[in-house]
Design brief:
The structure is a single chain. 40% of the residues lie in helices and 18% in strands. It has 405 residues and is of the alpha/beta class. It folds into 2 domains: 5-113, Enolase-like, domain 1 (2-Layer Sandwich); 123-403, TIM Barrel (Alpha-Beta Barrel). The strands form 3 sheets. The protein has an 8-stranded mixed β-barrel, surrounded by 5 helices. A 3-stranded antiparallel beta sheet has the order 1-2-3, with helices on one face. Strand 11, helix 9 (308-316) and strand 12 form a beta-alpha-beta unit. The longest helix is centred in the middle third of the chain and has 23 residues, at 165-187. The protein is globular. The two termini are 35 Å apart.
Amino acid sequence: MKIDNIFLKIIYDSRGQETLKAIMRSGNIEVSSSVPHGKSVGEKEVFVMNPYTAVRKFEKIKERILNVEFADINDFDGFLLELDGTKNKSAFGGNLILVLSQAFCYLAAKKEKLELWQYLEKYISIKGKRKDLPLFLFNLINGGQHAVSGPRIQEYMIVPQIKDLKVCLETAQIFFAGLKEYFKKEFGKNVFGDEGGLIMLGEDYTKPLEIFEEIRDQLNLKDKIRFSLDVAADSFYNREKEKYEIKEDKSVSQKELLEIYTKLITRFDILSIEDPFEENDFEGFKALATNRKIKTIIIGDDLTATNYEVLEKAIKLKAINGVIIKPTQIGTISETLKTINLAIKNKIKIIISHRSAETEDNFIADLAWASRAWALKSGAPQPEERMVKYNRLIQISNYEKNHLL
């Protein structure tokens, strides 16, 4: 495939910050894609370049891209990586390389008259019809770096255990409505965080789960909703003291934090916990993941950063049994797919995730379907930049409904 033209634009994300959008043309086909970015960013993630600098750098390489015919996404990404020539994509920025990589996938899919997920699944090692629909992880109470107040645990999520994705979304919206009513009575008004969830007062990390239980009981949804956490423990880890400052007046060791998690898991039947320890504490992750007394899925995000080599290490150490996949962490779709295939090979549950500052691009929904992901994580069921991902996956599932096993 030969690309006829590429234009870069600077647009605003959901936090009102500038990010990149690429428009790519080939023949009479035109596509566009945009990239989000996170506030809670791990040290293993690729370099993110200032959008204006990225546009200037792109103009210097644009003609070189347009002069080449590319066989596929691996060929295209390989060309960009060779141009960049750095390990962390610091020459052109992971955000610039990714927005081009995503746009190429959209364009190639249209050229081949395929849906995006159909194009992506050609590069996924698992074949055949998927047996289960992905779960939705809805972040309804925002804490940590995604909120101006509240607990230091970053995300309190509900996970409907419903096989119909449309009903799953509707159930979450009903739950969220009940939660907003509770918050308005309790705190006087509703304030929302970066991912569309509610913000609460006080640092009590148990309280959000107690509120979830109360709302779930009121709505008679006990058998249909479970809870999950994204702790983002790196954000409250004090490296000098080697302590986790889980509250302003409570600093705990790795072992003490492990005990806190064990109690929360037991009390609230937690389905999954993401980033329970700081991003280099493989042993802490392992202590939870290999604990036979609990069945909670232990998920790596900052720990693994969608990086093939780091995921390989986590698998060897048995540190996780679930992994967050964010293309923005690694910077190309081909590298993202390589990491996904490693997870599939080792039976690690895949969670395709958004970022805290999002756009209305729904690429990750197609990626979730193509990769047979265990779950899609896209924030609260309210802001448009979150909803487009959920709605796109519902659309795909409806298209495929008659073909499921």
